[in-house]
Design goal:
single chain; Rossmann fold; 6-stranded mixed β-sheet; 12 helices; 18% strand; elongated; DNA-binding transcription factor activity; LacI/GalR-like_sensor; DNA-binding; HTH-type transcriptional repressor CytR
Length: 333
């Protein structure tokens, strides 16, 4: 096990200097503190003194450019609540840490965690292009990633819902209503979870003997492109149902269809994904696939607790649930 003396020997400085740097002493320069932290991480050092404190510090790291969380109607709000409901009674001090790409590029994930005295993190809202996604491949500080999966690092775990099951529920439901021409509309595939849902849609369509084609699939980073390019193509090609990869996109699709003169669900059925509060408030209310976000937050803590206890959990998936509302209907005979 790496000690403070090992770090001091590696850097050629005194043990007291390393100790001061690790404990944020004011007489240590920022440059030296950074060098000590980076050396400590490289040698595999962990601050064992943290476990002796009455309260153990963990954090929820949120990519603030990708994920909203401050208000009850925001997607991540209940996830954070669920995590804290389990962590705080168990004696953990939970801090919410918004980060962006600039923060990630400025220091390695392990260095950031060591610097701020966190023993583990629940990571929410990261896309595949975020710098710390690469750090997680070799990081040593326990990290549970919501909707992201890292191969080969026992210090990381993945928490989410079963997207395969969720998409099967959506396709199976529409097929049972008589729909054969089903389209898929998605925002950018820059996140692992969105790639997973896209692939799950294709597999489920194949399993039900339903044809897919490029003309019935639309993916774009921009909502305007989804509405102005992909949606009109679907409607022109006689699509009778659209599965959207998230509720906000489904809500926009529903509104745009109505503005184009199509009645939902009489002319076209629409299914969303997530069951955000907005889904029950659209007109008509939106059929969707529910993610229980409160339970996802609790699962994030269970997974992190496992990693902190040296149990190399890999994946923790919750079941998806079909919520039937009024945006879908049976195809008339």
């Amino acid at each position: 096990m790496t000690t403070i003396q090992d770090i001091a020997d590696k850097m050629g400085v005194s043990k007291s200097t390393v100790s001061k740097a690790l404990n944020d002493a004011p007489d240590i320069s920022e440059a030296l503190r950074k060098q000590v932290l980076e050396t400590a991480v490289a040698l595999g050092y962990t601050k064992l003194r943290r476990y002796k404190k009455p309260t153990k510090k963990v954090c929820i790291i949120i990519e603030k450019e990708n994920m909203r969380y401050q208000e009850p109607h925001h997607f991540a709000y209940d996830i954070l609540v669920g995590f804290r409901q389990m962590a705080e009674p168990a004696g953990f001090d939970v801090e919410i840490v918004p980060v962006d790409i600039k923060t990630q590029r400025s220091q390695h994930y392990d260095v950031f965690m060591l610097k701020h005295d966190y023993i583990g993190a629940f990571v929410v809202g990261f896309s595949l292009s975020d710098p710390w996604i690469q750090d997680f491949k070799i990081s040593r500080t326990p990290a549970v990633l919501f909707d992201n999966y890292i191969v080969g690092n026992p210090s990381t775990a993945y928490v989410g819902i079963d997207n395969e099951e969720g998409m099967e529920l959506a396709v199976s439901y529409l097929a049972g209503l008589g729909h054969r021409k089903i389209a898929y509309l998605s925002s950018s595939l820059g996140a692992r979870v969105l790639q997973a849902r896209h692939a799950a849609f294709l597999r489920s369509m194949h399993q039900h003997g339903l044809k897919t084609s490029p003309a019935a699939i639309g993916c774009s980073y921009y909502l305007s492109e989804c509405m102005e390019k992909h949606l009109p193509r679907f409607l022109e090609n006689g699509i009778t149902a659209i599965i959207c990869n998230q509720d906000t996109l489904a809500s926009a699709t529903l509104t745009q269809c109505q503005q184009l003169g199509f009645q939902v669900p009489d002319d076209i059925s629409i299914i969303g994904f997530d069951d955000l509060p907005i889904a029950a408030c659209t007109s008509p209310p939106l059929t969707t696939i529910r993610q229980d976000r409160l339970e996802l937050g609790k699962s994030g803590f269970f997974a992190l607790s496992s990693l902190l206890n040296h149990i190399p959990i890999s994946t923790y998936l919750l079941h998806a649930q079909l919520i039937q509302r009024e945006s879908t209907r049976k195809i008339p005979l």
